[in-house]
Please model this.
Amino acid sequence: MPRNYNTDEMTPNTEKDSPVAVATERKLLRGGWQQVDALKSTDSNYAQRLKVSEDVQVIKFIEDEPYAAWHQHWVERDGQKSFVCIRELEERGCPICELGNRPSQRVAFNVLLMSVGGPSVLRSLEIGPRVVDQLRNLNKAPQTGPLTKHYWAISRTGKGATTSYNLQVIRERDIAEEWKIEPLSETVLAKHKEEKYDSSIIKVPTYAELLAIASEDLGK
Model:
């Protein structure tokens, strides 16, 4: 890497070349898929969802309550399939509801996805009513709550109506030794809280947009 020189004296810029500055630079330009995901999250106008699978992932809640809750339609079609239900907003009702498509409840939490040796990444944990009740109980219980107190190992089993989420408490004192993940500093947590999602990131369709989807479905 070329060295930076002071143009007046042609001497090395020691502030720029200090070990701290070089380490910061390397951190900014680090590689790996987790870094790609971190950049993607900051550049996107949409919430990046946490894809919960059978593989265990470590997360950190940055709020004890969800940032949004809504009813959502799922429509089998090409392109976008999920749509926020507008029956509570629109006097004319919801065109998708009128097709007999019953919406489901969705609730979203701000969480950080952790990884070994990589940066924490902001994600939206979107879940249904059964898991919400599970999280509510965990948040209230003195042994596990509030949600932001600990780290969590999360995974899922089953599909569709048989899906269940597995949540295991990871205490901060154990995360480095047992999971090989560095605990988050207060500075990093504060930075993520400034970037956290709110309800404005969820697109609410217009009546005309949903009517077009409904008409498309009826035209098949």
About this structure: Residues 129-140 form the longest helix (12 residues). Helices lie at 19-28, 33-43, 95-98, 129-140, 172-179, 186-195, 207-218. Confidence is low (pLDDT under 50) at residues 1-16. Strands lie at 57-61, 68-74, 82-84, 104-114, 121-127, 151-157, 164-170.
